[in-house]
Amino acid sequence: MTAATHSTLFPQVPESADAVLDGLDPEQRAVATALHGPVCVLAGAGTGKTRAITHRIAYGVRAGILQPNTVLAVTFTNRAAGEMRGRLRQLGAGGVQARTFHSAALRQLQFFWPKAVGGDLPRLVDRKIQLVADAAAASRLRLDRGELRDVTAEIEWSKVTQTVPADYAAAAHKASRETPRHPAEIAQIYSDYETLKRDRGVIDFEDVLLLTVGVLQDRQDIAEQVRAQYQHFVVDEYQDVSPLQQRLLDLWLGDRDSLCVVGDASQTIYSFTGATPDHLLNFRTRHPSATVVKLVRDYRSTPQVVHLANGVLARARGRAAEHRLELISQREAGPEPVYVEYADEPTEAEGAARRIRELISSGVSAGEIAVLFRTNSQSELYEQALADAGVPYQLRGAERFFERPEVRKAGHSLRAAARFGGNDAGLDEAVDLPSQVRAVLSGEGWTTQPPAGSGAVRERWESLAALARLAEDFARAKPDATLADLVTELDERANAQHAPTVDGVTLASLHAAKGLEWDAVFLVGVAEGMMPISYAKTDEQIEEERRLLYVGVTRARRHLGISWALSRSPGGRPNRRASRFLDGLRPGSTGPAGRGAGGGRGGVEHGTARQDDAVWEPPAGARRRGDRKVARCRVCGHTLDAAEMKLMRCEDCPSDMDEGLYDRLIEWRARTAAALGQPAFCVFTDKTLIAIAEASPDDERELSRIPGVGRRKFRTYGSDVLALCAGQMLDDETDEAAEDI
């Protein structure tokens, strides 16, 4: 069984609902057939998550369980949404809506704005950076180009985390953000930016979500209309959801639970934009009845690549690391990853280009090779090195394929030829569909041989060549297809943003490479200061850099090269070293032993109802310091590790927490810590408060039995905690309430 990474470009539509399930592995099939209630799919890199969720939707539609127009699948990029629409169309479920969060919200906002507010929806600004520049000028602040870009990013982060200008400074400090200007200055620019938008009657990209949330919150009739339309939701890349997007999803759902989320906390690499894996990690807490399916069979990469990927994460720390998945390769063995140290960066780029030439000569397509780097500024060296070596390349992040001028012009010519080709002498000698297409494209400047060098001329040729190859693939899949059939296929692909492959080496940043894969990947510049990046200071930031490397490693199917340079320029001081993330992994290096992967087993876990009766009782003698009795989860019975013993349940087992009590405990802890002049965790840790809110103890005996409530803390805080558990108001709360009145 495979994830069908290399399935034919034009597969036959499955004949029945059951046929949709053919070829799925047991875990993927479990995802596809779990059509009721909340479902959480924890999917490691290369495990076929898109395949699993598209087959799930298609199976539900083809079996008559889901109505296509009531399903909304949301993801984060137009490319991913387009790929999902393309796959659903191939599976016979073409009527399903697959959109980005912003696209879905904008569509609803445009439809309901006249009813909710009146008039036309304000114009959406194309480039907010000019508005930010005007706001800075209004604040009498001068920003250079880099600062302007970074301040714009800070405003975007503030809005998706639902932070208003007055709260920006405190929120940025709490999130340990490296601000490009003093936080007070950014807050002022942010405030003036919002004022300018209102004065000019425009909205920005983030306003689309904020306004949709506002409409759905304020107008119950509109919310009910949306919920009547969309009754089943699928969210891809759920680890990247921001607080604002989660709020919108909650409003779409209402009090229903027909929700399937898919994600991998180990691929959380966009926290700087406001994304957080907390919603994924807390899914079982919010939805105790959820079915959880773990996908760990890696169909993309060889055992050698997978071994390195697992090794990178084995040293990870933090909450996301506790839920990492240990991948199991399903492919045959391949070559070991190649590690190369160079004297300087230009030599590193030349070495990568030379190795790429060798791979192409051995039969690897240029379109199946990628060079990935940490920052876009590293691209120029590799563009030059590949051009000097005569290797075609493309930059990831350029305009969409079907929006390129040469592609649109070629599409018009193909459409005209399909209508009036009988009168075109240029097509007289064309004996089949591919030759007809080549004849039309020749009129657009396409030739059988690529032009020399690089640049715009080469990029135009690559676009037309991609159309020619697509025609060949289409003709092989459908021998009787006509030029009109191909034009229809191109229109459907353009609508779905399902672009053909351009045959050139991809140059991309690691962030831009997320969700993509190649036969051969070169990870370049993997040195301290670049990986992790120099401005990553906190533990959380360092761990995100580690995850970024993990994403890069898992883009490779078979060949993986990792390199770094000792200095930036030829003759420079060789004061760099390989990334710490490679310590103990690359030959000849040493490093701390990695821990076993958490949650590495694949499989299905069915949710349970609230566990009100499942109260843990410590075994006899368990309080003796030297006694190492085994502690088991009070929900599922599994053995607990040290970090889980405070909760007396597995991290991902459903919680029966009294959320109101937990909120009161949090507020009490904050007041108590402030009065003592201590950090909040010195009173009680978060896990201890969760354990208290879950147990809701009635007396001293029950409270003292909770791990984390030691003898000293029981004497100091026990009476307050029991009073809160009993619903009583403490003296300081009474005083505050009186002041509010």
Describe the structure.
This protein is of the alpha/beta class. The chain has 28 helices and 17 strands. Strands 3-2-6-7-1-8-17 form a seven-stranded mixed β-sheet, with helices on both faces. It is globular, with a radius of gyration of 28 Å. 41% of the residues are buried.
Low-confidence stretches: 1-7, 609-630, 734-741
Mean pLDDT: 83
Helix count? Answer: 28
Q: What does the largest sheet look like? A: 7 strands, mixed
Beta strand count: 17
Rounded to an integer in angstroms, the radius of gyration calculated over CA atoms is 28 Å
Query: Class by helix and strand content?
Result: alpha/beta
Distance between the termini: 67 Å
The dominant shape is: globular
User: Strand order across the biggest sheet?
Assistant: 3-2-6-7-1-8-17
Strand content: 5-15%
Share of helical residues? 40-55%
Key terms for this structure?
single chain; 741 residues; alpha/beta; six-stranded parallel beta sheet; 17 strands; 10% strand; globular; disordered N terminus
Structure in a nutshell:
The chain is of the alpha/beta class.
Task: Detail the topology: elements first, then pairings.
Blueprint: H1 17-20, H2 26-33, E1 39-43, H3 49-62, E2 71-75, H4 78-90, E3 97-100, H5 101-116, E4 123-124, H6 128-138, H7 145-160, H8 168-174, H9 183-200, E5 202-203, H10 205-218, H11 220-229, E6 232-235, H12 243-253, E7 259-263, H13 278-281, H14 283-286, E8 291-295, E9 297-298, H15 303-314, H16 319-322, E10 328-329, E11 338-344, H17 345-361, E12 369-373, H18 379-388, E13 393-395, H19 405-420, H20 433-442, H21 456-477, H22 483-496, E14 505-509, E15 518-523, H23 539-553, E16 556-567, E17 603-605, H24 659-676, H25 686-695, H26 700-704, H27 711-725, H28 731-740
Helix pairs in contact: 2-3, 4-22, 5-10, 6-7, 6-9, 10-11, 10-12, 15-23, 17-18, 19-22, 20-21, 24-25
